[in-house]
Each structure stands twice: as C-alpha cells, then as structure tokens.
Amino acid sequence: MQTLNEFDQKTQETLLELEKTRKEFWNIDRNTANFLNMLIKIHDSKNVLEIGTSNGYSAIWLADALKHTGGKLTTIEFWDKRQSVAKENFKICKVDDVIETALGSALVILDEMGSEIKQGIREPFDFVFIDANKPEYIEYFHKIDPLLKSGAIIAADNTISHAKKVEPYLNALNENPNYQNQMINFEAGLFVSYKL
C-alpha cells in the first residue's frame, strides 16, 4: 500500500483515521487517492472539480496535489453534516485555503457553474473527479462536458464495483469520439477519460 510520507504528521494521522471509516463514508481506497494525486501533478491541473465530498478524504489528496500545481479545488456535497466534517478535516490538514465547498444537489450546482463559466465569472475545469450518486453519473457528464477545457480529464470512481448503475455513463463516454478512455482496475474501478 502507498505510504503517506509526503504529508505532514497531522495530515498522515487524519488520513489514517479517515481510512478506518472508509466503508461508512464510501471513500476511495488509498491507491486510487494516490493515483489521482499523481495524475493532477502530471497533468498540471489548476481548476479541479469534485462531485461527492463525503468526509473529505479524497479532497485532501486532490488539494495536496493542487498545492504543487498552484491550483484550486471546488467540491460538491449533498449532505450538510458530511460537509461540516469535511471542512474540519480540511482545516486540520491545512488544505482549506485551496478548497471551495458547495452544498446541495450536484445537478443544480453544475447548472449554476455553467452559467458562471459562460459569464466569465468562473474558469472552465481541467480535471473532474466523480464519486457521488451512481445512477446520476450520466447526468453529471452531460452537464460537465460543456464546462471542460480541451485536454481535461474526468476520473469516475466505482465503475467496476457499481458497473450496472454507471453503465449509461460508461457507454456514453466509450461512444463519444471526443474522449479517449481507460478503465483502471483499482479496488472499485476508476474510469479515466481524456477530452480530445
């Protein structure tokens, strides 16, 4: 398993504690988290969107990478209690300065973000991580696609563990000539798509 050596002691302890509640909060596994962290650095992503904050485990890994690239993370969560827990974890891990949180339905918030991007208030995204309501993945994609820069990456979790629920999403991406896709066989499955 990937070590946590790149993090300071307090962040390492926090991440280890969050890993103990992984099943309860439906968090990604550490290998997936480390891969996403590396991918953001390799891609030099600057404007990252996460759909599904939960307790903040994945966002801490994403935000850590963004500290290296000079970017920022916007993360959407439906449940206020989970968002409160996540915000506290962001402070403890000293990544709250690069994270903007949004509370509510991702489908509604994505529409709002779309309007902001059209008006020039918000920059288009160059990296998106999806880990929320599985049957809604296809709807997220239709709303996300216009918000992406050319060369953007979408990474979707649970694409093996919940293959049936996300099948419309997988089919849509695989049939879309504007995307190059690869399934990665992490524990729950990570489907990575590159916008051509």
Task: Supply the key terms.
Rossmann fold; 196 residues; alpha/beta
Describe the structure.
The chain has 196 residues and is of the alpha/beta class. The protein has one domain: 3-Layer(aba) Sandwich (Rossmann fold). The protein is 43% helix and 22% strand. The chain is built from eight helices and seven strands; from the N terminus they run H-H-H-E-H-E-H-E-H-E-H-E-H-E-E. It has a seven-stranded mixed beta sheet, with helices on both faces. The radius of gyration is 15 Å and the shape is globular. The protein starts with 8 loop residues before the first helix and ends with a strand.
CATH class: Alpha Beta
Sheet having the most strands: 7 strands, mixed
What is Rg?
15 Å
- In the CATH hierarchy, the architecture is 3-Layer(aba) Sandwich
Beta strand count: 7
Distance between the termini: 33 Å
Average pLDDT level? 95
Q: What is the CATH fold-level name?
A: Rossmann fold
DSSP helix fraction: 40-55%
Strand order of the largest sheet: 3-2-1-4-5-7-6
- Unreliable spans are none
The CATH homologous superfamily is termed Vaccinia Virus protein VP39
Q: How many domains, in number, for the residues?
A: 1
Strand content: 15-25%
Structure annotation, total helices: 8
C-alpha geometry? globular
Oligomer: single chain
